[in-house]
Amino acid sequence: MPVTSLPGQPPRTAWFATPAGQALVDGETTMLERALADRPAPPWLWLAPSAASGPVAAACGRGIRLWADGERWQGEVRCDAPLPFPSGSMGTVVLQHVVRAGGNDDLLLDEAARLLEAGGRLWLLALNPLSPYRWRWRGQGLRASEPLGWRRRLRRAGLEPEPVSQGIGPSWTPRVDDALRSGPGLCAAYALRAEKRVAALTPLPRRKLVLPRGVSAA
User: Fold this and answer.
1) Cα gap 191→126, rounded to integer Å
2) Does the global pTM surpass 0.70?
3) Where are the domains of the chain?
4) List of the chain residues with pLDDT < 50
5) DSSP 2
6) 12-195 belongs to which CATH class?
7) Non-local CB neighbours of 127 within 8 Å, separated by 6+ positions
8) Cα separation values, 195 from 28, 100, 110, 118, 124, Å
9) 3 state SS of 75
10) pLDDT tens digits, residue range 150-179?
11) CA distance linking residue 114 with residue 112, whole number of Å
12) Is the dihedral of CA 181, 185, 186, 187 positive or negative?
């Protein structure tokens, strides 16, 4: 699971409940609500690093938001992974700082690909290793990596990421900032969007028509 921690240590996601972490999460929440409102149907799934500060706007349509609690997910349902939802049942899946950067724990990426319908979208939120804001999560058991590595992992899961990530969040001072920018820049985090593509049908090979001798092809 992406939320595991060593015995005696707080969960890695605990930082997102601190004032600095919550400022980042609140800006992302506002942005993600706008993204979900653009596609209110079919249902969506949102996995967050900490308990929601408020209800999701009604304009977002039908969906469920769960948050990490140790090695489990809490919210409207309590569950472990694999997640108890049917394959191909979600139009959008949000993974908000719940997959370990630079690690091999790709279970949630695989689960996201399984849950998405053909043409469905994944929003992945990750910390930016080039941001000055990294000093605020230093020593909290968090890791950050650049978008290229995430794109490779998304492709391995069967998803097609967009070529440009979008920066979000403050660069140093803890404050809510929900604006998306082209490229991570110095933003505390960035968003990667990927799509579950429909596999193209393999065309049948053309067969050469062999005519008997003396028969015209006209």
Assistant:
1) 7
2) yes
3) 12-195
4) 1-10, 200-202, 204, 207-212, 215-218
5) T
6) alpha beta
7) 97, 101, 134, 137, 142, 143, 144, 188, 189
8) 20, 20, 13, 8, 11
9) strand
10) 999 999 999 999 999 999 999 999 999 999
11) 5
12) positive
